[in-house]
Design brief:
With 187 residues, the protein is an alpha+beta fold. The chain has three domains: 41 residues; 38 residues, no CATH class; 74 residues, no CATH class. The chain is 48% helix and 14% strand. It contains six helices and four strands; from the N terminus they run H-H-H-E-E-E-E-H-H-H. The strands form two sheets. A two-stranded antiparallel ribbon has the order 1-2. A two-stranded antiparallel sheet has the order 3-4.
């Protein structure tokens, strides 16, 4: 059995910044021990309610702001979970696909995140490259999440090799053909 170490990191640094992840991680493990090695989100919120809790600053305690934030999260989830039926061009079968996908777009000269129709994203090279990179990130994240399981060691190795190969292809500029075409003139 593997034992947890003392270093902490965040799989989502935009959610839990590196400067706070150790503090939060230690408190989460302390709470897990205090609650019999099982911890529910409700218990975390209750413990974090105290201003003395190391987790207190992570949460929004202003109910108006928290309510708006929660609605935005609900809207994101709604955009992520609605699927549409498409035809798989390889098999000809109907398969479910997300109707909207999250990408970076340009808005007033700035990059911002927005949801766009999946079909538009797949037909726009800038969006398509983002989605492929995102898929590779998720594959690598899956590997990081499950790398503690010896039973998956070989699978994880193969996935990482293939992911790195695909990532190199994604970010290499298209090669131009060196062959010159001979002009043929028909008389």
């Amino acid at each position: 059995m593997k034992k947890l170490g003392r270093d902490f990191s965040s799989s989502a640094p935009y959610v839990v910044p590196r400067t706070k992840v150790r503090r939060y991680g230690k408190e989460i493990l302390r709470l897990a021990d205090a609650y019999g090695r099982r911890l529910k989100p409700k218990e975390v919120v209750e413990e974090a309610r105290s201003k003395k809790s190391p987790l207190h600053g992570y949460f929004e305690w202003n109910n108006l702001k928290a309510a708006q934030s929660f609605r935005l999260q609900q809207a994101r989830k709604l955009l992520e979970v609605v699927y549409v039926t498409v035809i798989d061009t390889r098999t000809g079968k109907e398969v479910p696909a997300r109707s909207m996908v999250n990408v970076f777009t340009e808005e007033k000269g700035r990059k911002v995140r927005a949801y766009v129709r999946q079909d538009d994203a797949l037909n726009t090279p800038y969006y398509r490259a983002q989605l492929v990179a995102q898929a590779l990130d998720e594959l690598e994240g899956w590997c990081a999440k499950y790398n503690v399981y010896e039973e998956l060691k070989d699978t994880i190795h193969e996935v990482l090799v293939l992911s790195r190969f695909e990532r190199k292809k994604l970010f290499q500029p298209a090669k131009k053909s060196r062959k010159r075409r001979k002009a043929t003139v028909k008389a």
